[in-house]
Amino acid sequence: MKKQIVTGIFSLFFGFLSFSFSSFSAYAEQAVRFDNLAVHYSAIPTTFLSPEVATQYQIQRSRYAALLNISVLDQNKDNQAVMASITGHAKNLLGNRFPLEFRQVKEGSAIYYLAEIKHTHEDKLQFEIQVLTAGGTTNTLTFEQTFYTD
Prior knowledge:
The chain has helices at 2-20, 51-56, and strands spanning 30-34, 37-45, 65-74, 80-81, 84-91, 97-100, 103-107, 110-118, 123-133, 138-147. The chain is α+β, with helices and mostly antiparallel strands.
């Protein structure tokens, strides 16, 4: 029962994001696999969050800010959340690097990592994120995304 509640909370958060942003396919959640791990990631404008959700997670809503959300799940253990050390940076087309400061959020057995980043209109950012798990393995997640101000 507890697992269902926690899974429900985790699903609710990602469901909220998916539902809220379903018409914005550029901001859809994505996942990559590294052996038995599934690393889910999304990067969305903070204005997509309701003021209540932003307050709950201490996120500043701004048309010039985006939120990165990373979660690591062990597919060999029924998609159980895995603790990890998440570090990384974003780089714009001019080559300027912006460090990402991730903070861990736990809700029951759900674990995700949030980082905020500033951007300008039509800013294309390349992300390089290192995911270090308890087993000592580091995997690198790379993706790019263009952000727009609304």
